[in-house]
Amino acid sequence: MSMDIQRDPSVKRKKKLRRIALAAAGAAALLAITVAIYSLEPAAYPVDRDALYTDTVKRGDMVRQVRGPGTLVPEEVRWIPARTEGRVERITQPGIEVGPDTVILELVNPELLQEVEDAGLALRSAEADYRNLQAQLESELLESQAAREAVEADLEAARLDAEANAELAASGLIPDIELKRSRLVEGQLESRLRIEERRLEKAEDSVAARLAARRAQVEQLVAAARLRRSQADSLRVRAGITGVLQEVPVEVGQQVRPGEILARVARPDTLKAELQIPETQAKDLTVGQPARIDTRNGIVPGRVVRIDPAVQNGYVLVDVDLEGELPRGARPDLSVDGTIQIEKLEDVLYVGRPAYGESGSTIQLFEIVGDGDAAVRVDVRLGRASVNTIEVVSGLEEGDVVILSDPSPWDGHDRLKLD
User: Fold this and answer.
1) How far apart are CA 197 and CA 401, in angstroms?
2) For 70-109, what is each residue's pLDDT tens digit?
């Protein structure tokens, strides 16, 4: 017969307390581990230091500049149009030096040459008619002058008769009727003389008017003949200025019309730079600002002389007058780079221009900290910008070193490890 042995209740309580203690210790350990994990900083993203572009924040004077590509263009360019219709017979190839009278292109137009001949014949015929009319009118004028002089002579004779009859009548040698007749004749001749004088004046005026009308016709024909000769002369197209023949956009045998461009001549010794400045950088440009033009064979100083009011494909065209001596090899259409100085900022905080970030924006840069083996992301507010530098408004201090390289490969990381 067996008997059940009853356990001591204290032993059971001790086991229960031990289990509770072990569970509490496990929970505490788990909580400690969780807190430790959350308190750890994210692991730094490794970056090769040699592949980074960095700069140190400085304080001092900063020169604001804008830059743009461009070309050298002649200040004096002559586009030569066709003055008359014709067919191209001979062309001078571009690239040669020319003078004002150098023939660079020849046209042919048989119809125009015939018109020149016809105009010359018409002019000679009109001049002959003018001379014939002039002789005829001079003859008529001489007849009028002769008639006046004849009346004047008769009047003088009548005056002498009247004076003689007056003396005879006073002596009673002739009756008074004879004296009256002689004075009547004198009065009639005086009236005829006045009429002849007016007739002569009218004849002179008529001669002048008729000759002037005929002369105007002759001058019209002179102008027409001169125009035809000038058009014929323009068949030999001349450069007009001293320079270099740059372009002849026509071919032998081509028929051209008046106004069509035949050639382009430019003076290579007077060049200017035409720069293309981005629209976003052109708002601060003004005429008179200094500039420097890099011809890749030397740098030439200049000054802004014109700013195109229009925007083309996001760029503004700016003309720069070159003030220095051109280097060897400078020629029209040479590609150049231009830098224009906008203003000088005094005592400002600035740094090299980062890979992204415009004037007046707030961006994030990585600032190198510690012993230079780490970098952290910071917010930086930018101010006025130049070509290679930009003003720092806030977020950095003088002496800080920042990474200017494109940070997009490190998106999602606030700390870098520099190896």
Assistant:
1) 112
2) 999 988 889 999 999 999 999 998 888 899 999 999 999 9
Note down the domain range covering 172: 110-228
Query: Does 105 share its domain with 126?
Result: no
Q: How many domains does the chain have?
A: 3
- The domain that holds 80 is classified in CATH as 2.40.50.100
Residue 397 lies in a domain: yes
Q: What is the DSSP string of 183-252?
A: HHHHHHHHHHHHHHHHHHHHHHHHHHHHHHHHHHHHHHHHHHHHHHHHHHHTTEEE--SSEEEEE----T
- What's the rounded mean pLDDT across residues 202-228? 88
pLDDT band at 148 (very low <50, low <70, confident <90, very high): confident
Claim to verify: residue 143 and residue 102 sit in the same structural domain: no
pLDDT of residue 37: 45
Query: Could you give the maximum distance between any two Cα atoms of the chain, in Å?
Result: 229
Domain assignment of residue 25, yes or no: no
Edge-to-edge strands, sheet with 243-247: 77-81, 261-266, 243-247, 97-98
**Which of 314, 305, 322 has the alpha carbon at shortest distance from 74?**
322
Q: Please give the structure tokens belonging to residue 40.
A: 């750890």
Amino acid at 250: V
pTM beyond 0.70, yes or no? no
Q: In the numeric block, which tokens belong to residue 56?
A: 């140190």
**404 shares a domain with 277:** yes
